[in-house]
Amino acid sequence: MASTASMASTASMTSMATITQGGSITIEKTKYECAQVPKRWQREDVLRKTGLTVGKVDLYYSRGVRNDGSLVPPIRQTASIFKQPVTVYKLQESKVKNDYKNGNQEKPKQLIWEKRLEGLRACDIDGFEFEAMELPKGLKPVGPNVTEDTIIQSVATALHVSSQPVTGQTSTKTLLEKNPGVFLDPKQPLVHAVNISDDDIKRQEERVALARKKLQDALKM
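Below the sequence we write its predicted structure tokens.
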């Protein structure tokens, strides 16, 4: 922008220089910190001393470059004496999951915890051990070195503690044998999935009816 103007009384002179351009035109530059412009802006008056436009003053406003931390490339903080550049990748699809402290916190469950009870037997008041229970033949153990006693403890715990249906391990036999620590469901007993047929239900009803009859006869005596 070129115009003729007088210097403001509130301006403070910061620098002055006389420049000769092409040996024919002489100009004089003067920079000011003017109060009428925002901070970090400077006003520059360029006075033309020679040439056809002698006495004219050109006004220029400029601002210094401010240091921006985002424009400075990051440097790897290592013990190396040389500065090593770091490449920054921005992942727009990344999501941050908050750790919720409130509400029901489910405790982690140990796999195959029933093996800690192996070798322990319950006994009566006189110190005699109870007879071992026999499970149906359809219940097959799952896991490394799982015995029949371990299955009984696992099934009994699931029936008394778990609030969800007891189905057994639903993963395939191949996966369970390959890596039981990954594919075992800690909420289910250590048995393969059991399919109950109508014949099984009928036989169980007959056993219940027989047990009730024996109890009724015992009460009459």
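The helical segments are 148-161, 173-178, 180-183, 198-220.
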